[in-house]
């Protein structure tokens, strides 16, 4: 079973195997209350926003990517400068993704062999090979709070045989990854794969649990399959996972997806949605749902994005008209302010979710979110 881990500990406060849960993650630099949402900081930074600005809007953690940092950074230098936290100056929790998904989706000439993954860098074409062991060592060098094992993520749709092969190979790699661990005090979450067949997913969840990880990520969902299937598979996995350990749904983060996943026992989320959408001018609000700063109605709108919002854009009194002007002029400040608003919205959403679970009013909040943002 799981070995002692001083970088990461999850405590379930309320709830059970399925249904809305409350918990807390204890990590080196503090506590994260769950359900929680982490933005994506692929190379160790959330685009356009400093770490102090992230902390000011309540962001307590981020998901970075070992594959990107390995290809574009300098592992020895980061290690010498005290690890990723010290290098990027972030005091929140850092989860590093293994890169299994990104090698398959971004890299070129990828070959998955029983030994590992061969690929060409999408940045400079250089040839690389990553084994399950190497991916553990990279993340240990980065000294993130939580590492994830190399996995094979089936595409949708993919044949039954391919899905089963990917699932079995992933499990073989977990065995090697566990044996390669030199830093048992770093959190290590297993990623439940298993494709798009419920029975295979359930089996993959049970098999992944046997490795005794410190908690479980659920990967390979929302890659093109119908939404009802995504949540059917997520519920099946959550039913198989031990209730006292964390369930982290990777890469999904629309507000409507978050409330639906929380309702079936999910604790942690990451997604590019608040930051990428902000850079596209798409903003989240509690009164109007999604609004777009590029709409012509914004050009002479004197209101802030959302009255009462305490993000730097709204609290700073910046009008929609000014933000639309900045955006059209291609000014960097537009991207920063819009990103901070969306990040603040998502932190507020998670605060409201936790409050509603505590009070037993989660159903009302879920209805409100679905009414505002739709179900898809
Ligand atoms: Zn705001």
Key structural traits:
about 375 residues, alpha/beta, TIM Barrel, 2 domains, 3-stranded antiparallel beta sheet, 15 helices, 16 strands, about 20% strand, globular, binds zinc ion
What does this structure look like?
It contains 15 helices and 16 strands. 42% of the residues lie in helices and 19% in strands. The longest helix has 28 residues. The protein has two domains: 264 residues, TIM Barrel (Alpha-Beta Barrel), CATH 3.20.20; 85 residues, no CATH class. It has 376 residues and is α/β, with parallel strands linked by helices. Bound molecules: zinc ion. The site of zinc ion (ZN) has 8 residues, from helix 12 and helix 14.
In short:
With 376 residues, the chain is of the alpha/beta class. The protein has helices at 51-56, 66-72, 75-80, 83-88, 100-106, 132-142, 160-180, 198-209, 227-240, 255-263, 273-279, 312-315, 320-328, 332-359, 362-373; strands at 8-14, 22-27, 30-34, 36-39, 61-65, 93-97, 108-113, 116-120, 127-130, 146-147, 187-192, 215-218, 247-249, 268-271, 282-284, 290-292. It has two domains: 8-271, TIM Barrel; 278-362, no CATH class.
| Unreliable runs | none
Q: What bound compounds does this protein have?
A: zinc ion
Number of domains: 2
What's the N-to-C terminus distance?
Answer: 38 Å
Number of helical elements: 15
Fourth-tier CATH superfamily name of the largest domain: Queuine tRNA-ribosyltransferase-like
> Spatial order of the strands in the main sheet?
4-14-13-12-11-10-6-5
Classify the fold: give the CATH topology of the largest domain: TIM Barrel
Mean pLDDT: 96
Oligomer: single chain
Q: Could you say which overall geometry the principal axes of the C-alpha atoms support?
A: globular
CATH level-two architecture of the largest domain:
Alpha-Beta Barrel
| Number of DSSP E strands | 16
Which bin fits the share of residues in helices?
A: 40-55%
């Amino acid at each position: 079973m799981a070995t002692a881990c001083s970088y990461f500990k999850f405590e379930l406060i309320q709830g059970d195997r399925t249904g809305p849960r409350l918990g807390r993650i204890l990590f080196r630099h503090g506590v994260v209350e769950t359900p929680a949402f982490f933005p994506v900081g692929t190379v160790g930074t959330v685009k356009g926003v400093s770490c102090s600005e992230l902390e000011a809007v309540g962001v307590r953690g981020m998901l970075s990517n070992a594959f990107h940092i390995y290809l574009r950074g300098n592992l020895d230098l980061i290690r010498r400068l005290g690890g990723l936290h010290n290098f990027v100056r972030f005091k929140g929790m850092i989860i590093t993704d293994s890169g299994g998904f990104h090698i398959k989706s971004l890299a070129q000439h990828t070959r998955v062999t029983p030994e590992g993954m061969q690929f060409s860098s999408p940045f400079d074409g250089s040839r690389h090979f990553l084994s399950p062991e190497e991916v553990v060592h990279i993340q240990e060098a980065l000294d993130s709070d939580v590492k994830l094992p190399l996995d094979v993520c089936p595409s949708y749709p993919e044949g039954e045989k391919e899905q089963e092969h990917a699932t079995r190979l992933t499990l073989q790699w977990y065995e090697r990854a566990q044996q390669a661990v030199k830093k048992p005090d770093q959190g290590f979450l297993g990623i439940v794969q298993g494709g798009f067949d419920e029975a295979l997913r359930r089996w993959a969840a049970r098999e992944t649990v046997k490795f005794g990880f410190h908690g479980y990520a659920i990967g390979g969902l929302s890659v093109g399959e119908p939404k009802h299937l995504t949540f059917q598979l997520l519920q099946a996995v959550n039913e198989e996972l031990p209730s006292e350990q964390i369930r982290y749904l990777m890469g999904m983060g629309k507000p409507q997806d978050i409330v639906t996943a929380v309702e079936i026992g999910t604790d942690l989320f990451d997604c590019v949605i608040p930051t990428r959408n902000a850079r596209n001018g798409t903003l989240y609000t509690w009164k109007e749902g999604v609004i777009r700063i590029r709409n012509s109605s914004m050009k002479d709108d004197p209101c802030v994005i959302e009255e009462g919002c305490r993000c730097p854009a709204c609290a700073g009194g910046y009008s929609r008209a000014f933000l639309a002007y900045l955006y059209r002029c291609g000014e960097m400040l537009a991207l920063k302010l819009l990103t901070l608003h969306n990040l603040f919205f998502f932190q507020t959403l998670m605060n409201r979710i936790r409050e509603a679970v505590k009070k037993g009013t989660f159903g009302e909040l879920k209805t409100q979110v679905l009414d505002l943002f739709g179900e898809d």
